Amino acid sequence: MVGLVCFGLWVSRGFDFYLFGFWQIWLVILAGATLGFFIGKAENCAAGAEWVMENKVWVRTYELVKINAYPYSNTLNLHLTDSGDRKLEISLSRLQDDRRIWDYVYNGLLHSVVNNRADTNALARRTLGLPKADHNIG
Length: 138
Description:
The chain is of the alpha+beta class. The chain is built from 5 helices and 7 strands; from the N terminus they run H-H-E-E-E-E-E-E-H-H-E-H. The radius of gyration is 22 Å and the shape is elongated. The relative contact order is 0.13. The model has no long low-confidence stretch (mean pLDDT 85).
């Protein structure tokens, strides 16, 4: 990132290096690089075959007991609760940014509704195409 900024400054100044002789420029470049590092590190999302995690909060997707969706800004937030009483609130768009993560999570959601009879709200069923859990079975 720092290299790209330096290259951009060099090109914008007519391929002249005189600009880099000022310590103030290096201070701005260093501050921008530090800010970019912390912004990029702020949030991470990961998923495995049976779990999904955002930052340090995770749930087991095949053991969900509640799946609720709530509108938030211009997206939906999923509120997931598993059998171990772990809770994760995550943006649907954040999950769908990476197709592999979304595939893992969606398969776990479907399994939890069909096999574990997880409670869902109408918005989650309508938006995600989840069936309504039948609590009267077995």
